[in-house]
From TrEMBL:
GO BP terms: negative regulation of signal transduction
Lineage: Eukaryota, Metazoa, Chordata, Craniata, Vertebrata
SUPFAM superfamilies, per database record: Regulator of G-protein signaling, RGS
Gene that this sequence comes from: Rgs18
Annotated RGS domain residues: 86-202
Statement: the UniProt record of this protein carries the keyword GTP-binding: no
Keywords of the record: Signal transduction inhibitor
Originating species: Loxia curvirostra
Protein's name according to its UniProt entry: RGS18 protein
PROSITE patterns recorded: RGS
Amino acid sequence: MENPLLLFPQLNISASKDKPYNKVMKSAIKEEPHKASKPGAKQKRNRLSLLLQKPEFHESDHLGKPGNLTKAASVSPEEAVKWGESFDKLLSEKAGLDAFTKFLKTEFSEENIEFWIACEDYKKSKSAHELLPKAKAIFETFIQKDAPKEVNLDFHTKEAISQSMGQPLRSTFDAAQSTVYRLMEQDSYPRFLCSAAYRGLLQGRPAARAPLRRRSRSFTVSDFKGVRPDLTVW
């Protein structure tokens, strides 16, 4: 049998005298595999490369790409002023709708405007044959419980929509769309008008990247009854 001190150089005579032989050997055996398992620099680089390819590392990339809030820099101050006159005027212009949609993305509430746009497209269906697949897609995406982009609606509105899914009408989502519209008008729209991006457009400056805002909670229409939002633009 070879001398254990030759196999494990870190053992010294003093250590073997102070500790029982079995304990010293177990300690040394544990240390050796640990050292051998440490990844080298090349392995670390490979792991980092794979990690950076994961989708979650690019979730916020859309904020800096052309066509997002920075695209609104081509909007004139005169056009931006009109957006502050009413929520209808903001949504009626493509540039305004685009800027507001990107703003909602920074607040993680873009499902509201996406639902409103889907309802607008749904009402433009040319035949009853088109209504069923569109209605089903809207219901599964925005209405049903635990939908991937579920909007905040009361139980009765959701139930009425659910019961009409067998034979949907052009008016099936009207009540829900009106509710979501009011929520955006009374909650998100005033914040958009006070945002740095919108104020920059009024002054003819390129829109800066808006910071991501965490959603605190979902609002309901009752939260805003009797409250007139302050739409003053500074």
